[in-house]
Amino acid sequence: MQRIYLDNAATSWPKPAEVYDAVDRWQRENGAPFGRGVYDSASATDRLVHDARRAVAEVLGIDDPSRIVFTLNGTDALHLAIQGLIKPGDHVVTTVVEHNSVLRPLRQLESRGVATAHVGCDGNGVVAAGDVIKALNSKTKFVVVAHASNVTGALQPVAEIGAELRKRGVTFIVDAAQTLGELPFTAEELSCDLLASPGHKGLLGPLGTGVLYVRPGIEERLGSIRIGGTGSQSSSTLQPKTMPDKFEAGNLNVPGVVGLGTGVRWLLERGIANVREHALQLTTRLLDGLLTLNGVRVLGPREASRCVGLVSLTIEGYDPQEAAAVLATSFGIEARAGLHCSPLMHKALGTDAGGGTLRLSLGPLNTAGHVDAAVAALGQLTATG
Ligand SMILES: Cc1ncc(COP(=O)(O)O)c(C=O)c1O
Prior knowledge:
Layout: E1 4-5, H1 17-29, H2 40-59, E2 68-71, H3 74-85, E3 91-95, H4 100-110, E4 115-119, H5 129-134, E5 140-146, H6 158-168, E6 171-175, E7 194-198, E8 210-214, H7 254-270, H8 272-290, E9 296-299, E10 310-315, H9 320-331, E11 333-334, E12 336-338, H10 343-349, E13 357-361, H11 368-384
Parallel strand pairs: 1-11, 3-4, 3-5, 5-6, 6-7
Antiparallel strand pairs: 2-8, 7-8, 9-10, 10-13, 12-13
The structure holds pyridoxal-5'-phosphate.
């Protein structure tokens, strides 16, 4: 049975062949650490890591690659942004759309004297910029919002929110886990101060990679959450204050970063606008197909232009986990069911009690044939359900 992977919102697969080749080549032929040696292989590693940083900076329209911090994943990047800024007594504005990588750290901080406001959304899972601004108060330290929901795919008005926050001097963190590498945008277009993303989703790097963009000046008030060796300023027992060393203690995941740089170069060569166009075509095809099926309810926007390349649905008479299991075992279709680490989003959509939704998420290497196979399989499920 052919394997059709439709869980790209969790992590993208397959990666371009160039990513596997680059990781394999580096592991076999190099293997030297980053920022710690002057011998040839170490210098070659330094150049590869620098190239990867430059490639991610280019995606975000940034001239200075040192503004990009490599992290372990999206959660780690958000953790650094949130924990690095917060102090007891602060207030934070976020939304019900967020992933647990935002909700859980904030929940834990509530027990340490941090107040939070969770702004609601409409029936499509979209937050209103005005509601975010209304939730601010004099103690608001920052606002953190997902660029797109990982449950419905709905794009959030982050550029509008960012512009309003910049006028008010409020720090803005964007969780771009579902958009970086998938949509063309720059950090300045979102007016964000910090932008967190996994490296292993739209950026097409291996698992175990993530990035945090830090706007110039923000690093002065962003504390390091990991302190230790950086290979730089080694005579001092104090953590360096320079970017990105302040936030990159310990050996980097070089094979991951090499793969990430290669994935991002692949995207830049194709053009992220073209990658987006492909996602729009496949998502439209998927939505059109699903909307012909009786008993299938699509959550979130019905227009591909209002979301990233993922669709969440429920099927009358089927538990989402059961539907995912049948798709996998009978049709080779790999999709994710459940609450997708976003409990408040499912609560807002009314899908929490029924076990969440079935989510089909597309990547740049998916084809129209994959979409048609998924629609046909769901058609059989609804016919027999
Ligand atoms: C919206 C959103 N934020 C954050 C994350 C966390 O990313 P990671 O799994 O790389 O930690 C995810 C991953 O699913 C996500 O979808």
